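User: Thanks for the earlier help. One more: tRNA-specific adenosine deaminase. Can you show the sequence and predicted structure together?

Assistant: Of course, both are below.
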Amino acid sequence: MSRALEIAQAAGEAGEIPVGAVIVDGRGNLIAEGENRKERDKDPTAHAEIVAIKAASQILHSWRLYECTLYVTLEPCPMCAGAIVQSRLGTLVYGVDDTKTGAIRTVLNIPDSAASNHRLQVLGGILESACRQHLQAWFATRRLQQKTTDSKKTVQS
């Protein structure tokens, strides 16, 4: 999870919502990383989890990631939860609950729903405080920047 936080930091510095993800294989070897890239790639599907899943599938030459574990700093959204189930990941470890769009345990529970054809082991709350603080600080900075921009626009008008 520490590596996922480092990746999230880099994403935030690039102007993305700071979410990072890593995938390790059954032996604990890091095989793929992903960070949010929606803004840079102009792609609504470029969430950290999707980027990491695609990379892991290419490296393993398989879309089935049974023995892999995905670590991600924020609880996955419905799209990512669906991709996690579809990729047959063995385990999901996430940092902080997403009270708006969390689709693993908080708002929805896609892995345990009748629509899921794969059972996923889930561990939430890992490095929760660090993940939460990182996201909150990024959003606070973003809001402050927006206020400053809005103030400048008002003065210029």
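User: Great, one quick takeaway?

Assistant: Residues 1-151 form a domain with the Cytidine Deaminase; domain 2 fold (CATH 3.40.140.10).
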